[in-house]
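Batch queue: ligand-bound targets. Current item pairs a single chain with fe (ii) ion. No template structures supplied; prediction is de novo from sequence plus SMILES. Inputs echoed for audit trail.
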Amino acid sequence: MEKVVASIMSTDNSAMRNEHDVQIRLLEAIEKGAAAQRPGHELSDLVDQLVEYTNVHFLSEQLLMRMYAYPAYAEHEDHHNELLDRIKDLQGTLADGDEEQLQQMARSLQEWVTGHIKRDDALFSRYLEEGATTSTGC
Ligand SMILES: [Fe+2]
Ligand SMILES: [Fe+2]
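Prediction returned. Tokens below.
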């Protein structure tokens, strides 16, 4: 069972890689859309998709962390919350109509997400691969 979960969470796993790719692609689309001065409603749709997708992705990761009593859960959750806060800032910038700032923020968030995948998500993936056991408290 642990092997199955480890393979689901593996950053090399195609399902997880696809989820991470969607996050990055949405941020790229926001950056390019802002650079091309696309209409506000188009940018707003992309940001809404980013919010929804990120919430679902983070909840699923966090559920796995709780199921497997991941010791660094709190720190990883803090990092997720930090990104959610930064996405709220992105929404504020969009509402202000500051496209240049929106473009910069979307680029910076791509770097943030890429770093998170390489560090935090990879650490959790390794924890599962090394044989984490299911928490009885979940
Ligand atoms: Fe992730
Ligand atoms: Fe994560």
